[in-house]
């Protein structure tokens, strides 16, 4: 009512004066950016297959949190933090972990040694190195003795990087990449003293997303020939979108071109490495997988240079919600987040997919209602003994329990929430299934509280609003207290109730008649307070299970005031269903008295 009046008032105000259209000043942005920024020219693809593909299995994963992620932190991880992070990654099931740039510093070298000495046998430790001899030697040294190790070299191949940063021709680039590869080979898999390690090799043409596709292919063919991979231990060609320059479909085209043109495809593992400059890293990675990629490099919650690397949590759980195991364990999302936030010293955004605080919460009334209906149907089926494991809950693509999150957090209540939200909280916290018309009234009380506080109400605040507002089990006020009562039967229809109540410390006798105990008690109150009460709604349900089962009763009573008809609710909970309904009536009567609508009788002391 209040809102529609405000909208009407605004409409009237606007209609009576004319507001000129806004002309944005374009203080910094160019009105025509086409001279400064040129659209990326994607290579022409004759035909593409990837749009018809689907993701059917998990890729190989490489975590680069400790390398790409760590090198981009304002405050890099301490050695202790790197260790904690490393063990978390192993615990989640990562089999390939890029741990450092060991030739860059003694700290990185020492940590690589730690990882080599503490990695399970099936985990490959990967280290990055520039294509320079003394750095390669130092890197191989850092990995010596590992069960599995991967040396990762890279070279600028994009026109811009070759020309501006490195001043190198395409031929020079190929020669340098081949030379580095041969050196790594000589120092690792060809060295008889290095046979205890399963050596793998990764090469990154950088920045692949901006490299002419024919040249990326040409340099990788040369590197492959120099390394001579096997089907058992394929060479890894990492094809990084070091800078994301185009829409994800262009990246997929480039991956498909590479995948379908590289020779001896069975001896090649195509790896994606997407940065998130345009905010499309997840999409580009997924389209890359459709286009033939076998492996995904990224970071937990997407840490990394600038806008970060692709977020492995999102890519992995996207697969999971399609029924595909990512082969990574995100069961304990809270502890994963804690480790990541503690070590990175960067908070995970509240809206981060899957892991963010707010992503399994619903505030809006219609969303809450839909979610509640989804859960109710699930529980109904369960009660009927129907086994249906399929997850079908509106607005929740993932069962929060699968990643260790609570249902209690799913529905949250602020001033925008409808009746369903507050009722859900009461159902979850007190087990009380409030009748529909009571929910409407209760949600109004909750909204008033949320509005007054100007914030969301916590679950315990909502339960205390209920207890106070409805005089839950007469806990909030007891102006009239029941001392004792007895109901006598007269024939099949007539009941007479006689009892004693305490009003302001004085014992008063009451008596009423009706066709049952409830109606005779209501009649007794009508006489006592000289107001005609009528029960307008009564429901009950059991609470808890086994020997601790209780009954919950809800009653609303109508009565006349000088302003017309009014009603109030009461709640009673007791081990005995008769007692719980009597408690509910007392709770309701006390509510009515407390509201001031009905006065207590004068008792002579
Ligand atoms: Zn990167």
Helix % is 25-40%
Decide which structural class fits the backbone.
alpha/beta
- The termini sit apart by 48 Å
Give the averaged pLDDT, no decimals: 90
Helical run tally = 18
Rg from C-alpha positions?
A: 35 Å
- Can you identify the CATH superfamily of the largest domain? Aldolase class I
Biggest sheet overview:
8 strands, parallel
Number of domains: 3
Annotation, overall tally of beta strands? 14
CATH class of the largest domain: Alpha Beta
Task: Give a verbal description of the structure.
By secondary structure, this protein is an alpha/beta fold. The protein folds into 3 domains: 59-344, Aldolase class I (TIM Barrel, Alpha-Beta Barrel); 365-469, no CATH class; 474-595, Double Stranded RNA Binding Domain. The chain is 39% helix and 19% strand. It contains 18 helices and 14 strands. It has helices at 2-16, 65-71, 79-92, 106-118, 133-143, 159-166, 170-187, 213-227, 248-261, 281-290, 312-320, 333-344, 365-383, 419-430, 436-453, 459-469, 517-529, 577-595, and strands spanning 60-63, 96-100, 124-130, 148-156, 198-206, 235-241, 268-274, 295-298, 480-490, 494-503, 506-514, 534-543, 550-561, 564-574. Strands 1-8-7-6-5-4-3-2 form an 8-stranded parallel beta sheet, with helices on both faces. It has a 3-stranded antiparallel beta sheet with strand order 9-10-11. Helix 3 packs antiparallel against helix 12 and helix 14 (419-430) crosses helix 15 (436-453). The longest helix is centred in the middle third of the chain and has 19 residues, at 365-383. The radius of gyration is 35 Å and the shape is elongated. The two termini are 48 Å apart. The model has no long low-confidence stretch (mean pLDDT 90). It binds zinc ion. Zinc ion binds next to loops. Residues 59-334 form the Pyruvate carboxyltransferase domain. Its EC number is 2.3.3.13. Its cofactor is a divalent metal cation.
């Amino acid at each position: 009512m209040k809102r529609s009046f405000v909208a009407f008032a605004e409409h009237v105000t606007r209609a009576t004066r004319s507001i000129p259209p806004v002309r944005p000043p374009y203080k910094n942005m160019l009105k025509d950016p086409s001279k400064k920024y040129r659209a990326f020219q994607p290579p022409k693809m004759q035909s593409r297959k990837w749009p018809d593909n689907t993701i059917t299995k998990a890729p190989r994963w490489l975590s680069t949190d400790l390398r790409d992620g760590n090198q981009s932190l304002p405050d890099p991880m301490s050695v202790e933090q790197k260790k904690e992070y490393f063990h978390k990654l192993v615990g989640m099931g990562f089999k390939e972990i890029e741990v450092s740039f060991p030739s860059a510093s003694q700290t990185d070298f020492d940590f690589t040694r730690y990882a080599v000495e503490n990695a399970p046998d099936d985990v490959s430790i990967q280290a990055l190195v520039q294509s320079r001899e003394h750095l390669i030697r130092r890197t191989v040294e850092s990995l010596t003795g590992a069960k599995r190790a991967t040396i990762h070299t890279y070279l600028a191949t994009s026109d811009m990087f070759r020309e501006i940063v490195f001043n190198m021709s395409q031929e020079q680039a190929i020669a340098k990449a081949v030379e580095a590869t041969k050196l790594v080979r000589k120092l690792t898999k060809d060295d008889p003293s290095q046979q205890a390690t399963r050596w793998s090799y990764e090469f990154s043409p950088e920045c692949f997303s901006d490299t002419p596709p024919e040249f990326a292919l040409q340099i990788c063919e040369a590197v492959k020939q120099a390394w001579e991979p096997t089907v058992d231990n394929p060479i890894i060609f990492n094809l990084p979108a070091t800078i994301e320059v185009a829409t994800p479909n262009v990246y997929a085209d480039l991956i498909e071109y590479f995948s379908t043109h590289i020779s001896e495809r069975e001896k090649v593992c195509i790896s994606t490495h997407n940065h998130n400059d345009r905010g499309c890293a997840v999409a580009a990675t997924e389209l890359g997988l459709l286009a033939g990629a076998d492996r995904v490099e990224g970071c937990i919650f997407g840490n990394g240079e600038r806008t970060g690397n692709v977020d492995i949590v999102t890519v992995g759980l996207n697969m999971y919600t399609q029924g595909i195991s990512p082969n990574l364990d995100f069961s304990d999302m809270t502890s994963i987040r804690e480790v990541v936030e503690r070590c990175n010293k960067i908070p995970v955004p509240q809206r981060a997919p899957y892991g963010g605080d707010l992503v399994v919460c619903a505030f809006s009334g219609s969303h809450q209602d839909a979610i509640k209906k989804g859960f109710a149907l699930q529980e109904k089926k369960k009660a009927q003994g129907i086994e249906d494991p399929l997850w079908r809950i509106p607005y929740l693509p993932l069962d929060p329990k699968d990643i260790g999150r609570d249902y209690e957090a799913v529905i949250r209540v602020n001033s925008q929430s409808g009746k369903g939200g507050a009722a859900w909280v009461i159902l979850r916290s007190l087990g009380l299934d409030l009748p529909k018309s009571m929910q409407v009234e209760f949600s109004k009380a909750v909204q008033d509280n949320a509005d007054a506080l100007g914030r969301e109400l916590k679950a315990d605040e909502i339960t205390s609003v209920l207890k106070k507002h409805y005089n839950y089990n007469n806990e909030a006020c007891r102006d009239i207290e029941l001392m004792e009562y007895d109901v006598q039967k007269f024939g099949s229809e007539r009941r007479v109730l006689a009892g004693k109540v305490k009003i302001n410390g004085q014992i008063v006798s009451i008596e009423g008649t009706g066709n049952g105990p409830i109606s005779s008690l209501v009649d007794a109150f009508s006489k006592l307070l000289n107001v005609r009460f009528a029960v307008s709604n009564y429901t009950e349900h059991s609470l808890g299970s086994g020997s601790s089962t209780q009954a919950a009763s809800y009653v609303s009573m109508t009565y006349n005031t000088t302003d017309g008809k009014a009603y109030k609710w009461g709640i009673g909970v007791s081990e005995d269903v008769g007692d719980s309904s009597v408690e509910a009536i007392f709770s309701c009567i006390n509510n009515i008295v407390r509201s001031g609508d009905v006065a207590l009788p004068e008792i002579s002391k």
